[in-house]
Amino acid sequence: MNGVGGLEWESLSAKTLRELEHASGALASGTIEAMEQRLPWFRRLPADQRASVLLVTQSGVAGFVSWLRDTKQAIRLTADAFRSAPKDMSRWVSLRQTVELVRVALEVFEGRLPEIAADEHESAMLTAAVLRYGREIAFAAATSYAAAAEARGAWDARLEALVVDGIVRGDTEEALVSRAAALGWEPAAEATVLVGNPASDEPTRVVFDVRSRAARVSRPVLLSVQGSRLVVVLGGPADEAGGREVLPKMAEAFGPGPVVVGPTVSSVAEAHRSASDALSGLRAVVGWPTAPRPVRSLDLLPERALAGDPEAEYQLIDRVARPLEDATGGLMETVDAYLEVGGVLEACARKLFVHPNTVRYRLRRVAELTGRNANDPRDALVLRVALTVGRLARARGLW
Fold first, then answer.
1. CATH topology of domain 188-301
2. Which of these, 126, 273, 283, 287, is most buried using a 10 Å CB contact count?
3. Tens digits of residue pLDDT in 178-217
4. What range(s) does the CdaR GGDEF-like domain occupy (predicted)?
5. Are strands 221-226 and 229-235 parallel, antiparallel or unpaired?
């Protein structure tokens, strides 16, 4: 036979149940009055929100009476009364505050129910019943808040994936910025895109690894796993000394294989340029087996150009070929000659009929204009490819 706290349900008389039903309105009103007296934050709520709490309280009282009438319903009525409330209330009442509301309601019930009971036995019965009912209410509220938090988390994850996908596709600025702002991203924050392989087949683990490393370096981050590719949008500067230290730490969140870093742009609205360059570099990095990890997309310009990336060709022309052609003093022919003779200074000087010191001076000027040192094997490759791309573009009438 069903009971509460060792007391039999049959001991609760029909008269007491009727009295309890008639007093339900007063119980709900008294509960709201107690909330207003004891909870300062509740008094500050707008009238419509306090009215919502009153409706929930009235539903709870009615559910309590119905539960006492039919024990087979168990706590189903409790869940029915409180399941939908947190979906609305959670926007303006925290879980802690909800527990405070339940505590006040229980104290009011415990104080007034003995007056309704026909005798001490029924009073004890009601007291035990309301304690169990209140416990179930608290559990139901906590479950609903947890479900709401999970739903918000799932929605945030979908919205984040939409933002990163939009960055990769180059969506319109307005839609991208508004969605990123909804995730708490500062619209004016600088952004850098990193791409590579995810460290795990489990998306939750990938998300945890990326977010934990971003938290350690105090940077905002957006990410999306796109099949076998992980795309990370990192907030904040990445070109200064502190930023350059951040990139290797973030690269640890990626799986085996290269990690390519796009250029840092002024805002998330421009992040598609960083993503485009990073993805181009990821496709071309196979051409540089010894590339550092992470590697900048700008450092992969030769491989990207050879892979057919027109943006890389343009950047090689703009950063290397055009400055050398526009410069005076024979810089372009000096670079050509120096690379042609395998970087032998004296041989280059003889080829150009100039003094070796003149070659040294010109090569310093080349480094100042282009940022590339012809004595460095990697920079020499960039210079050679840039000059070749520039000549091909000029031959096609593109420059």
1. Alpha-Beta Plaits (3.30.70)
2. 126
3. 888 888 888 888 999 999 999 988 888 898 999 999 999 9
4. 170-284
5. antiparallel
